Amino acid sequence: MSITTAPIPATSAAAATPFSTSSLPQEEQDELKAAIFKRLHPRVYLERFVAENVRPDGREFGEWRPVSVDVGSISTADGSSLVKLGETIIVCGVKAEIAEPELERPNEGFLVPNLDLPAMCSAKFKPGPPSEEAQVVSDRLNEAILASDMLSLRSLCIEPGKAAWVLYVDATCLSYDGNVFDAALLAMVAALINTRLPKATFDEEAEHAVCSRNEKSPLAIERTRLPIAMSFGIFDSSRIFSDPTTFEQPLLDAQLSVVLDPQGDIIVTSQIGAPTQTWLSSSGEDALLSCIAAAKKRNRILTEVINQI
């Protein structure tokens, strides 16, 4: 048995097409083509913007996204904050518990920062155990907070060797658009400033801590040592992007983070990607020094934001 086929009329082919860009206005057609090209050729897409001395979101290379900080939004937490850095949104809550101090540090309490990057914040994250990025950023947050000495662990001791406060500083990303380290650190600092703990004493007879229901006091925060992070990305070996987005981050040669205190003194610096190479900015200067200089300018703005808490 033989089967013959006839050519499909043009009208039928058009009807079989589930979506045609020709039906869209020219402006929407151009936007759709740009979105497809961006997805298929992300590096070339970014390079074309860089050639025009602008970034895909319209910012200059050294321009930062707007930031806002709100505190006290979680009534069930001992302290909380909500930080928006562009389209990156972090909510942070502090919960306090009482535990026995470690034998090696009987006069110190505990500070446990953690960042959660759930699947709801970005398609790049999947449900299940914490992603590698979440674990790495959590470690960096812990390092920055402890290195800053913004909160002495001794101030969390209730009774040496018997009772101390444990502060769980849990940050969750609600919307992920890059530079989550800066946003999460800012959220954690703001939440700790907002934290109020009940007055606690140790009952020797009952051998446990007793908390007041009426008296609460803020943490012994050292405001001159608050850690403030500014992160940068290096693209094409010389271009320095301030506050990189989620689209830019995978295309970067390296990422640099500078953590300063309100006086502009360096607390810690970190680098991700090509650690053995010395990067130079487009002007020929050492990239790290250029980033530190830019971070100190940005630091003044963020310090003013934190001082309003």
TrEMBL record:
One of its GO terms (biological process) is exonucleolytic trimming to generate mature 3'-end of 5.8S rRNA from tricistronic rRNA transcript (SSU-rRNA, 5.8S rRNA, LSU-rRNA). CDD domains: RNase_PH_RRP43. Keywords: Cytoplasm, Exosome, Nucleus, RNA-binding, rRNA processing. Its main location: cytoplasm. Gene3D superfamilies: GHMP Kinase, N-terminal domain (3.30.230.70). GO terms for cellular component: cytoplasmic exosome (RNase complex); nuclear exosome (RNase complex); nucleolus. Residues 63-198, 226-297 form the Exoribonuclease phosphorolytic domain. InterPro entries: ExoRNase_PH_dom1 (IPR001247), ExoRNase_PH_dom2 (IPR015847), ExoRNase_PH_dom2_sf (IPR036345), Exosome_comp_Rrp42_subfam (IPR050590), PNPase/RNase_PH_dom_sf (IPR027408), Ribosomal_Su5_D2-typ_SF (IPR020568), Rrp43 (IPR033196). This is Ribosomal RNA-processing protein 43. It comes from Amanita thiersii Skay4041.
